[in-house]
Amino acid sequence: MFHFPVTILLSMIVSFNFANAANASLAGIVNNVCANLKINSDISQIINAPIVDERGMTATIALRPANHDWRIAVVTINDAQARPHAEIRLNKRCMVMQSRQLIWDEDGNKTAIHDLGPDLETIIQETIINPEQKFTLKPNDAMPGNPRIALVDTGVNYTLPAFWPNVAVDKSGRLVGYDFWDDDPWPFDSDPRRTAFYPTHHGSTVFSVLVDEAPESTISLYRFPALEMCRFKELLAHIAKTDVRLVNLSMGSNDPNDWHCFAVAAKAMPHVLFVASAGNNGRNIDEQPVYPASMALENMVVVSSSDNFGILGAGSNYGPQTVDILVPAEQVSILDHRGARAKTGGTSYAAPRVTALLARYLAKKPDATPIQMIDLLRKRAIATSEPLSRFGWIPDPSDDFGF
Question: In the predicted model, is pLDDT for residue 91 greater than 70?
Fold first, then answer.
């Protein structure tokens, strides 16, 4: 999960004013949209219309494609507090194709996303944001060294029963981890940076790889502090209070400033090994760095993806000085945030394969140090046909060869 700058879809933005919007239903707003848009008229006539009405509600239309032959109008409505309220997608005949609405509580927190029917009133599906979940202690929670792994990502859908056996729980039955994005104890899988109405999900799929390949390990869950990256100091301090020995980081960015506080805190945890993905930009990160992968921490290994023959995966980053190891991760079976099985690939899924390998090693060698764990990877690796990494590649990280 790399939060590089997103390529913005070219669109034409049309803003307008609609009367009494604060009291209008979504259906009424759509009617005003259609009237203002004048689908069969010259769009340029309304491009410069007012954005804000007398009650503070605003709306914009993005046309796709961005010309007079548009096929879809994406209507985004913000409330009087400039918070995202609804997104409605209309076809050329002004019929509702898809719509979602954000629900806010009195404290200004998002609580749910509603998928609405064509009438813009019927709730077809409700997705709770940061749902609470009761857990019960499991035998694995009492195993020495558990939680052995911490996953730092966009969160995890911890409500999926398939995940419960591996979610780390403390003696009080509380999830071990924290949401450092929303600052609450429920690190639920959601990344709303591209759009609040259709957040992306990443952490659940990474978690599922850890579960499949390190089934005896319990995993503490952390949603990374995307809005204030220096809070990584607090995040790692939280991890330091647990038995975690491995931290999976399937993420990164181009800006080293994002990761300065992380690097300082990670160096102060020499007993913990950080497993970072190399990124999916198709470049040599010895020459064009990616962070935190390029930070050269002694207690961090950097992992990239290969196919089943040791050939670098399409789009995977490499670097004979920066990347430590490659493992096959181009067709990895995952469970997504909905609980559906699928296959995916890339360095985000290479990293948890290595984390899981090391977790199984620690189960048998609980006193192993990060240096010894790195040495295991070095001994397991065989050379690739091209100099892509420091050690080479491991053909099958799911076996326990060497320990």
Answer: yes
